[in-house]
Design a protein that fits this description.
With about 280 residues, the protein is an alpha+beta fold. The protein has 2 domains: about 45 residues; about 220 residues, Glutaredoxin (3-Layer(aba) Sandwich), CATH 3.40.30. The chain contains 10 helices and 8 strands. Strands 1, 2, 3, 4, 5, 6, 7 and 8 form an 8-stranded mixed β-sheet that branches. A hairpin with a 2-residue loop joins strand 2 and strand 3.
């Protein structure tokens, strides 16, 4: 659980003010203390539920999908560039806009996209990310925590948009998948505070038992290049502008989302009919 220190400080001030008010009302500090504890217990029990209403905006394209709205604005926000985007992409004209079927195929049935979980799960979560994106690194732990308790399929879409080192890291991760080491390689890259370099990738390959010569060959293969092109094309058709992006069922989430919000969204999507 993520703790906001400002909220903690404000909650403490509210608690002190409540105690003063209760002392005044009851005229006795001991009775006010008992009343305060009863009120506080109810308040924090309710807060512990972490329930908050999620808001959505229906998207005109792709059909049947929607965007999550966070903090009074669309979550379709680029955390690196800070630019907001509209809920529909003006560059996609009617005859090229993806329909739900082809979007679902590209999201869920691309055999080149690494994944964890079982294919026939009731819910799939698709993640577009870049290894240099700070919040993408935070999402690794959030998704791992949720998957420890909730069974869903997590599909990885390598989307290197932050320079040459991002391209190299994405190619290396896809190449590691050819040796059955994708998840370990991906996790190590996300946990690293270093900008990916050829030296770091070689060192990481050695630590994970990856054949480095084969890795280099697969990094530059036509198959790897085609996979990255498909991911870029899909992101473009969806109108995505920055990382991270999560597509939870039929809901597109761009930018930062808390673990509590993501848990609620997953629960809601699991209880709803899936369009894919």
């Amino acid at each position: 659980m993520v703790v906001d220190l400002d909220i903690v400080r404000i909650s403490g001030q509210i608690a002190r003010n409540m105690r003063v008010i209760l002392d005044y009302i009851t005229g006795h500090p001991y009775r006010s203390a008992l009343m305060f504890m009863m009120i506080a217990a109810g308040y924090f029990a309710f807060s512990a539920l972490g329930v908050e209403k999620l808001e959505f905006v229906d998207l005109s394209s792709p059909s049947g999908f929607r965007a999550l709205v966070l903090d009074g604005k669309s979550s379709r926000f680029d955390p690196i560039l800070g630019s907001l985007r509209k809920t529909s992409n003006p560059d996609i004209v009617a005859d090229t806009a993806p329909d739900a079927t082809e979007t679902c195929d590209a999201l869920l049935r691309d055999e080149g996209s690494p994944y964890v979980g079982v294919f026939d799960n009731s819910l799939s979560v698709v993640e577009f990310f870049d290894y240099k994106c700070p919040y993408c690194k935070t999402l690794v732990d959030i998704l791992a925590d949720i998957r420890a308790n909730v069974d869903f399929r997590l599909i990885y879409k390598e989307w290197p948009i932050l320079g040459e080192s991002s391209q190299m890291a994405a190619r290396a991760a896809l190449a590691a998948a050819k040796q059955g080491k994708y998840l370990a390689f991906h996790t190590k890259l996300m946990q690293s505070g270093f900008i990916p370099t050829s030296g770091y990738i070689e060192d990481l390959s050695g630590r994970l038992g990856i054949n480095h010569a084969k890795l280099l060959d697969d990094m530059s293969s036509d198959e790897t290049s085609a996979q990255l092109r498909r991911n870029h094309a899909l992101a473009s058709k969806l109108g995505l502008v920055g990382t991270p992006v999560l597509i939870v069922g039929r809901t597109i989430v761009e930018g930062a989302i808390t673990q509590n919000q993501l848990e609620q969204l997953i629960a809601e999507e699991m209880a709803s009919p899936q369009i894919c």
